[in-house]
Amino acid sequence: METDVVIAGAGPVGLLLAAELRLHGVGVVVLERLARPDERSRAQALHGRTIPTLDLRGLLGRFLAEQRKLNGGGGDSHRKRPLPKAHFAGITGLAAPPHEGALPPVVFVPQAVTARLLADRARELGAEIRYGAEVTDFTQYESGVTVHFGWSEVRALFLVGCDGSRSVVREHAGIAFEGTAATLTTLAGEVTLGDAAAAPSGWRRTPRGCTVISPHPAGGPSRVVAIDFAGPAAHPGEPVTLAELRSLVEHVHDREIPMTGLTGGQRYGDAARQATAYRHGRVLLAGDAAHVHYPVGGQGLNVGLQDAVNLGWKLAAEVRGHAPDGLLDTYQAERHPVAAAVLRLTRAQVALLNPDERLDPVRELVAELIGFAVVGRHLADQVSAANVAYPPLDRHAHPLTGRFAPDLVLVTADGERRLAEFLHGGRGVLVLLGGHRPDPAAGQHVDVVTADCPERTDLGVLLVRPDGYVAFAAGAAESSGGLETALRQWFGTSETRQESGAHHG
User: What angle do CA 204, 206, 208 make, to 5 degrees?
Assistant: First the structure.
């Protein structure tokens, strides 16, 4: 069997990457060791930068529809359901989660639902997903890689490991996974609370540990998380029992908290590790295979999905043969620092959650600092990834360059359209405003849109990458002389080089 790209792991990150590659006609086979989709859900919501990213691909509506089903249906449930208070280590008071225009700041869907929706999308676009197909080894050579799974093998141009924190791909590539080992044990799952109204909801820290209890708004299964700081699990792979979870929750609160019907039980620690390299030849890493940390603040899945969207269009350009030199290397250059910052942020929160009473003054000081708007905004931006900006190629670049594109409403010959609509196909977009005319060669690998934008009359040119970040911008009265250079550096030239051995879908 031959294809362009093999993805190890059918979690949300691998599935989104598969869909991104298929938008560009790249052949994709996803190999998943589990016999069927994983029904466990460590992550319970999507937020921050992931929301406008789903909007860029026209997928946000699917997630909102699932959220309505989970909440009992009816209306814009994201407007009716109270948002959880933004927090840092369980300390509330952060600025409200930032969002783009009319988009919701949070979408409440469990990780298993996210995976299902992304699998549907990947299949719609022609990706092949094989369950019960565990990647055991691979052989890399100059022109490609042969991936072994079970008694079979598949030859491809590239292999991407999205196979989790214990990544076989990372291990066999010889890429180090540096960081710190687990120091605590967390038990989590969905239960039916005996008295949901009396349960200690939200983040609660006592001298014996912490819990996070989220009663279901419609009386369904409630999410319960309990943190034991006595040390890492002796047998991390053992199933979690209802008695074990209930006992830990009651120990933390020193009182009886009735619960029944445990489903989706999980046990995990706070190991914080990052791959030293995201690429080794024709092998790349994304998601938990590249970085793992304690899931406080809901950042893990969101960071991994951003990896996929950053990597997808770059890897597709490499496969299709029009990638400029060094484009694929910008994946690590841009995403490695982002994950490193997340690891630092989550480690700090784990330290502050420790029930040791000697940390109480530190928590009180942090709570006081969060009360200052600039501090609260800074921490909220870090948790939501609103602060992510990639270094521009030109140090004299426009302030928008390297940042996520604003949610503009463009007035075109066909009427008003949001900028996000032009990115549904996964191509870059060159927006020419206020009478600017296109370069004849500009549309080789990007779509050109001529429009007006009453809300941003200061802008003249905006070149937006497929992942939504601005590659080039110029003011209405500025020269756009650097546009040609930006097009060449990010999207290549009109000449296309064919990868040897490519098998396009």
Answer: 125
Distance of CA 48 to the CA centre of its chain: 9
Among candidate residues 181, 192, 150, 195, the one with its CA nearest the CA of residue 32: 150
Q: What's the pTM value of the predicted model, to 2 decimals?
A: 0.92
The distance in angstroms from the start CA to the end CA of the chain is 13
Asked if the 185-269 domain carries CATH number 3.10.20.30, the reply is no
The candidate with the shortest Cα–Cα distance to 160, out of 132, 127, 182, is 127
Nearest residue to 385 via CA among 57, 90, 50, 77: 50
Q: Which residue type is seen at 274?
A: Q
Pair type for strands 177-180 and 185-193: unpaired
Q: What would the DSSP string read from start to end of 121-139?
A: HHHHTT-EEEES--EEEEE
pLDDT tens sequence across 155-172: 999 999 999 999 999 999
Structure tokens at 63: 């997630």
**Which CATH fold topology does 403-491 show?**
Glutaredoxin (3.40.30)
Position 181: which residue type? A
Domain 2-89+104-181+272-352 superfamily per CATH: FAD/NAD(P)-binding domain (3.50.50.60)
What number of other Cβ atoms are within 10 A of residue 114's Cβ?
26
List b or e across 381-400, with b for residues whose CB sees 16 or more CB atoms inside 10 angstroms: bbbbbbbbbbebbeeebbeb
Please say if the pLDDT value at position 299 is more than 90: no
Adjacent-strand bridge partners of 226: 187, 211
Q: Cα dist. 258→200, 226, 242 in Å?
A: 12, 14, 11
